[in-house]
Amino acid sequence: MGFVLWILAAVSYVVGVVVLVAIVRRLLGVRVSFLRSAVAAVVALLIARPLLDSLVDEPVAASDPSGAATTEVLLYLALLTVFAFVVAMVLLVIAEVLVPDGSVPGPLDLWRSWRARLSRSGRYVEILQIATRHGLARFLRGRRHLALGTGAERRELARALRRALEDGGVTFVKLGQQLSTRHDLLPAEFIAELAQLQDGAAPIPWEQVRDQIRRETGRDPEELFADVDPTPLASASIAQVHAARLRTGERVVVKVQRPEIAHDVDRDLDIVCRLAATLDARTDWGPALGVRELAAGFAAALREELDFRIERDNMLGVAAGLADGNGGHIRVPIPVAPLSGSQVLVMERLDGVPLGAAQQVLARFDEQERRRIADTLLQTVVDQLLQTGIFHVDLHPGNVLVGADGSLGMLDLGSVGRLGAKTRRAMGQFLAAIGTGDSMAATDALLELVERPEDVDERGLEQALGVLILRFTAGGGVDGAAAFTSLFGLINDFRLGVPPEVAAVFRAMATLEGTLRAIDPGYDLVTEAKAMGRKRMTAMLGPTQLKETMEQELGALLPILRRLPHRVDRIADAVEHGRLSANVRLFADARDRRIVTNLVHRTLLTVLAATAGMMSVVLFTIKGGPMVTADASLYTVLGTTLFLVSVVLVLRVLIIVLRREEP
């Protein structure tokens, strides 16, 4: 029997806590976590009675024909209940002041975060060990080293850095690939060494490749292909490629993702994003360069590359755009969709050598032919940016094949950019303005490309952009990477936000410069882009293009012109008969109405709390009156009630102010 009573008592206590939590959360009027509310409710139930007994005497139940003792007990129980609510609310307000809700994760999130933190800590130790093994630890102390003045010393350090990045895994290899195109950031020795990361990753054994194909397709490679070469054609950071031949005789390549890299990439990208957040918060240059956004974009692009189905669709889209306009000089492989999946991609095999290892092939061409090949590649990329709208974002030398006849092939389309019609039009206008040196038109086009703030200094922007155009288009050899860096600096100086798709364009052009110079070492990207912009402006002013432009503009204006006479007639009739009026709707925006409603709500709560508090003080000072119990009058009961109402309202206002949430 005692056990049953204990169970009933426990159930009743739990029910009481749940009811108390529900009422307290309703009275506060804001979202408070159930766990925090439950803890406050339990503590309130435990301390409410001792606290109340220290303020008033607990009534003693006794038989009384008048019922005074029963009334006193009921009043005490009601006061104890309300007191428990008030104590719970006070505890929640104090907790909100000390530890805001949401700042401390829940038990499950805390356990997951600790597991992730332990994993990151192990990875930090591993990275430090890799750096130490390759002799890079001395460069992690933050001091400037003056012992790298010679080319041999820089080459040795670059070689150690490349090996460390290879040992670091996929994410760091991709980071090295990005750095290999940044001539404005690294010396030539580092660029040359990091360029080997394009296709120099250590190959994985054929048995692992075989198992990966079987897991993805459900069939052995021998069943899918007439023959497969176990020796890889290339081994990159994310996947390696094997030559094969279909049952129908077509020559293909099989791109197989490295096993178990998704977890490693997620862990390393988490470290990269955390490091970017730290730099953004603790440095002056971090926010200016947008390191947090850059890290997020790098993470999103790398995760996209892990899904080969996206690359399959990208190849089809780019191939459709290249079908016209390049005369067959640039191709992309066509995927074999039935044999492709998220981790295995089967595609047409293109003849050629990767540009990073094509010195012997390029040596067969004279300077003029090299210039023609580079012009073809640049023109194709510009056409992708301005016409088709889908372009290769990461066109580094390892992603370009050079054929014996000078034809080019684009590989690794796991990451592409897409531009809408409006952005393509603004990009074309910007390039055309650069070609003609028109700083005003270039400023207007740039403001169409970026996220424009409300208080932009257009005159200052036009002057700064004009100086930049003169600086980098005045003739002579121009470093394209430096030009893009200066343009980004100008955008940051004027607080212009760069949308992700526009940032992808700048990244693609900065990467393209290294590729163009691998074809023709003397190629000037800025000068050639200026010439293309001038040609584009001339083409826009041609009879055919002008006719098409006028037709498009008239097509857009025609519906407006049709309605214009009717609207003018209605306005004239209203003026003639004195019915013309202007109607301005105050608070038409829902956000304005919400702000005013919240202000009125909080003000009303504050006034009611103050009024109830003052009325309770007045009632406490009144002597006499009808007696509810032997010691408490009706005025005392009403004063206590109003005082508790005042406390509840004050606590509600405080929690709303502290949480900065809508009431």
TrEMBL record:
GO MF term list: ATP binding; protein kinase activity
Membrane spanning stretches: 6-27, 34-52, 74-99, 603-622, 634-658
Pfam families linked: ABC1
Keywords for the protein's UniProt record, in alphabetical order: Kinase, Membrane, Transferase, Transmembrane, Transmembrane helix
Keyword Oxidoreductase: no
SUPFAM superfamilies documented for this protein: Protein kinase-like (PK-like)
Keyword Kinase recorded: yes
Residue stretches making up the Protein kinase domain: 227-580
PANTHER family recorded: CHAPERONE-ACTIVITY OF BC1 COMPLEX CABC1 -RELATED, PROTEIN ACTIVITY OF BC1 COMPLEX KINASE 7, CHLOROPLASTIC
Family per similarity comment: Belongs to the protein kinase superfamily. ADCK protein kinase family.
Name of the protein described by the UniProt record: AarF/ABC1/UbiB kinase family protein
Source species of the chain: Georgenia thermotolerans
Biological classification of the source: Bacteria, Bacillati, Actinomycetota, Actinomycetes, Micrococcales
